[in-house]
């Protein structure tokens, strides 16, 4: 069971890091047992003003952590797209999250209860800022507008217009009399938030502005947008007072220390360093090394000795500035783009790399040690499947080939060619002698391969583009046959019943049509459900789709109209489904 849980996590590319009953069972729909996975970090972090917690935006929700121990406290879910912005109110009572679903959600920061959903934006919400008195929430969006809201009730108060590009960042001055915003039009606009009018516009930037920060006394505004230079602006005159030449790459994020004497900057991919600068002289004070990807967000805690950073290396580091070392590192947020599969005995994890590596790697899932690297594909790995006995691994690629590998020796056994497009899906029959493969775009054929003689032995016509998923049922003992199901781009599931008498060109016996968008995941229960007739069995097929639905289908030999059940709870695409070995539990993500 341990390996099964790991498989669920890795199939969705979301690694676990010490999940407990405290939050994995919160807010689940009826019938669901647990929520697993952290999601991809989306580059935003915020400390609560009381210094007790910090929030991390991810692709599946907002994670709330204990700022002192790094322990996960809660996961706030409800958005249907990734979280783009997070913010705490000044009194730490209210938490706000903004998403690619164009909405803002307000939460009770103590209990995690949802308070309100704000829905007037017409594009992704990229930035959030509370006014210092906590009464107003400002939101900036790709729709080029800033909306001002009553932070308690969620009522819309005002709309600020003037930007000609999407807004990436907004911030209130410490006294609340000024709001600044910036984005893709290379300008910084200074607003009077009470009357909704522009005070001035700061120009001269050479790229989009994605970072703004006021000093604690409100006398200085820091911005990026000028390549590798931090610009400091005098807020009385709105003139540039100092330019600090900084990183070896563009500046991604900025934050002032609580005493206002230091500004921290996070560098891009060729730098990856958190750097500290003297605000008055521009002198470089120190650098914190450790990240291996761009530093995309910085947040100082109120204790002035703690700073948290988010990086594109998929880690969060919480630093102790007294010793200039990480206090702890939060791992487990894995970027999308890698195919993974567990061997049936759970002893090996296979992962497929993106371009330009194009390799398959075999890992020990207990120790994390790399066992072997399989080389030969010339483009990204897009599908992986183990045979039932675990001795063979099939890998499919955008190079339109399928390779079979001996998992004990890491040697190439054979290469199958003939796909018209990239390989999208692979599935072994229960005996391991037949491999099914599906492709993308105009290639509507499922190909059946004999793994012993290394030849194509059949083809099944789907009559639709994009075969995203394939799954064989266990053998049906009374007939020595099996089902093969395909999940397709048009939202249908095609099902064939295959036995020794079947012709490989047969049309599908069933076409399941309840989904309204592409079917990305399929899994048969390993255990059949008996019917009153001892020679017939129901085989349960689970399907997940881009339409956000998770469905269960009961397939019976000779009955072309299966019954289905919809499991509710997902609010976005269902990417993966898997049954436990005894068939009593289904995991979805």
Would you identify the CATH architecture of the domain at 337-461? 7 Propeller
Largest sheet: 5 strands, antiparallel
- Tell me roughly what share of residues is in helical segments: under 10%
- Report the β-strand fraction as a percent range: over 45%
- Per CATH, the class of the domain at 337-461 reads Mainly Beta
Counting DSSP E segments of at least 2 residues, the number of strands comes to: 51
Shape designation:
elongated
How many angstroms separate the termini?
18 Å
Computed over alpha carbons, the radius of gyration is 27 Å
By DSSP (H or I, 4+ residues per run), the number of helices equals 2
Stated plainly, the CATH topology of the domain at 337-461 is called Methylamine Dehydrogenase, Chain H
Judged by helices, strands and strand pairing, the structural class is mainly beta
CATH superfamily of the domain at 337-461: YVTN repeat-like/Quinoprotein amine dehydrogenase
Low-confidence stretches: 1-28, 33-37, 332-338, 530-535
Mean of pLDDT: 81
């Amino acid at each position: 069971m341990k390996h099964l849980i790991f498989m669920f996590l890795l199939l969705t590319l979301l690694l676990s890091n010490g999940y407990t009953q405290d939050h994995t069972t919160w807010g689940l729909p009826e019938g669901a047992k647990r929520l697993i996975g952290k999601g991809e970090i989306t580059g935003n972090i915020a400390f609560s003003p009381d210094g007790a917690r910090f929030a991390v935006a991810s692709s599946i929700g907002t994670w709330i952590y204990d700022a002192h121990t790094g322990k996960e406290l809660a996961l706030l879910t409800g958005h249907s797209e990734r979280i783009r912005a997070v913010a705490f109110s000044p009194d730490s009572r209210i938490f706000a999250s903004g998403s690619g679903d164009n909405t803002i959600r307000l939460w009770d920061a103590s209990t995690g209860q949802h308070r309100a959903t704000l829905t007037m934006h017409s594009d992704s919400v990229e930035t959030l800022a509370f006014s210092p008195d906590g009464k107003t929430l400002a939101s900036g969006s790709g729709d080029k507008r800033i909306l001002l809201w009553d932070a308690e009730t969620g009522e819309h108060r005002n709309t600020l217009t003037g930007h000609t590009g999407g807004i990436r960042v907004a911030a209130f001055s410490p006294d609340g009399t000024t709001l600044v915003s910036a984005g893709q039009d290379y300008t910084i606009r200074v607003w009077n938030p009470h009357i909704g009018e522009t005070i001035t516009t700061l120009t001269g930037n050479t790229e989009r502005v994605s970072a703004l920060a006021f000093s604690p006394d409100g006398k200085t505004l820091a911005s990026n947008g000028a390549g590798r230079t931090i610009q400091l602006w005098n807020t009385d005159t709105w003139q540039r007072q100092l330019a600090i030449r900084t990183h070896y790459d563009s500046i991604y994020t900025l934050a002032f220390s609580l005493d206002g004497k230091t500004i921290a900057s996070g560098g891009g991919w060729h730098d990856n360093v958190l750097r500290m600068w003297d605000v008055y002289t521009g002198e470089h004070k120190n650098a914190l090394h450790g990240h291996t990807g761009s530093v995309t967000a910085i947040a100082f805690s109120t204790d002035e000795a703690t700073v948290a950073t988010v990086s594109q290396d998929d880690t969060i580091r919480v630093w102790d500035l007294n010793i200039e070392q990480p206090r702890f590192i939060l791992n487990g947020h894995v970027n999308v783009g890698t195919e993974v599969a567990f061997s049936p005995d759970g002893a090996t994890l296979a992962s497929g790399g993106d371009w330009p590596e194009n390799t398959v790697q075999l890992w020990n899932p207990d120790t994390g040690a790399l066992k072997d690297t399989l080389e030969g594909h010339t483009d990204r790995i897009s599908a992986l499947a183990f045979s039932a006995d675990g001795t063979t691994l099939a890998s499919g690629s955008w190079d339109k080939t399928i390779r079979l590998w001996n998992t004990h020796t890491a040697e190439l056994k054979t290469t199958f060619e003939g796909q018209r497009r990239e390989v999208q899906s692979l599935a072994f029959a229960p005996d391991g002698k037949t491999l099914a493969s599906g492709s993308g775009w105009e290639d509507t054929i499922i190909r059946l391969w004999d793994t012993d003689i290394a030849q194509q032995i059949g083809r099944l016509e789907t009559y639709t583009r994009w075969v995203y998923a394939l799954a064989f049922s266990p053998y049906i003992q009374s007939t020595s046959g099996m089902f093969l199901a395909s999940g397709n781009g048009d939202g249908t599931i095609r099902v064939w019943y295959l036995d020794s008498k079947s012709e490989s060109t047969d049309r599908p016996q069933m076409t399941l049509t309840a989904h309204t968008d592409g079917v990305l995941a399929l899994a048969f229960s390993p255990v059949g459900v008996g019917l009153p007739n001892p020679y017939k069995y129901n085989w349960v097929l689970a399907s997940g789709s881009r339409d956000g639905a998770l469905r269960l289908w009961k397939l019976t030999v000779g009955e072309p109209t299966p019954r289905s059940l919809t499991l509710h709870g997902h609010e976005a695409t269902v990417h993966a489904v898997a049954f436990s070995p005894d068939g009593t539990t289904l995991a979805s993500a």
